[in-house]
Amino acid sequence: MRARDLGIEIGTGTPGRFNAITDVPGVRVGHATLTAGTGSLVVGRGPVRTGVTVLLPHEGSIWDEPLFAGSHSLNGNGELTGLEWVRESGLLTSPIAITNTHSVGIVRDALLAGEVRRRRAGQAFGGLPVVGETWDGILNDINGFHVTAEHVDAAIDAASGGPVQEGGVGGGTGMICHGFKGGIGTASRTLPEEVGGATVGVLVQANHGRRERLQVNGVPVGEIVDAQQVSVPDDPDARAAGGGSIIALVATDAPLIPTQCDRLAQRVGLGVARTGGVGEHSSGDIFFAFSTANRGMPPAEDGEGGELTTTVDVLSHAYITHLFDAVIESTEEAIVNALVAAETMEGRDGITAYGLDGNLLLEIMERFGRARRQS
Known about the structure:
Layout: E1 28-36, E2 48-56, E3 67-76, H1 83-89, E4 91-92, E5 96-100, H2 104-118, E6 130-134, H3 149-158, E7 176-177, E8 180-181, E9 183-190, E10 199-206, H4 221-224, E11 246-252, H5 258-274, E12 284-291, H6 320-341, E13 345-346, E14 352-353, H7 358-367
Parallel strand pairs: 5-6, 11-12
Antiparallel strand pairs: 1-2, 2-5, 3-4, 3-12, 7-8, 9-10, 10-11, 13-14
Helix pairs in contact: 2-3, 5-6
């Protein structure tokens, strides 16, 4: 179930074929989902509610064929590795992965190890992978370090184009959003040909926000479906309410240079705000954007040989506002898709994150005239 399946259309832009980040040609997404056990927390033994999501930016080797990229931090109480090199070079030189806070290291190392295995024996290789995280410790035995290198490999092997599984899957398995079950969500927009015809896609791992601030298409859903009606997961040892985090990845086939990618990443925050997120003090809200145009640039490494210069295409700044619109709408819809797709999950110690019931949401939206019931 997705927002548009319910008749909730966000914004005025046109979604791509799958209304997903995979509408950008070459982009593929794969998940590895870990769910095991019930009952009381026993560190190292579960219950387990976690996973990893991997995004492959194009069909070639991103390690050898980099892309222009940029980033933005709305609030930095989180982690997205590799950003120093992205800021320095303006290049994405690895797949992108998202997992839980305490599994960033193993996922980063697994991406490197996997690439080493794929190269010929003894070939020199170095990399700085991009790996993000959000905290799933309310539902998951996060200190048990259950994500392994094999799970990263499985997510890579599962990566494909087309529809993207959403909700409590992959890195989003144990995540909570605005007091409801959260997780992975995605959406896209395709621009009219007269302004370039580019596609913009957004994928989020939504684990942020307070219930009372949640809005869908401008409707104060969090005030209506408050904690008295649908309880919020309660853990006395957890961070303050709203202290979760959101990681967002933006892909486009528009020909952008790194500074323009930075600007797209920055606009994710406006989509987060439209659903009620504010970048709380204890939230890690970090956004990343890349362009799949200008393929064929030389690898980002030292060494002479080959062409001395590289010619690139650059979108005129006069047209970039259309991309901003697409990022904002896609982000908002991706968050709502994550909420709608995520099913109720019981985690450790019986703590339960309830899914946002689609029929209830539709009734509320219809009451405000912000949805059309599907026939």
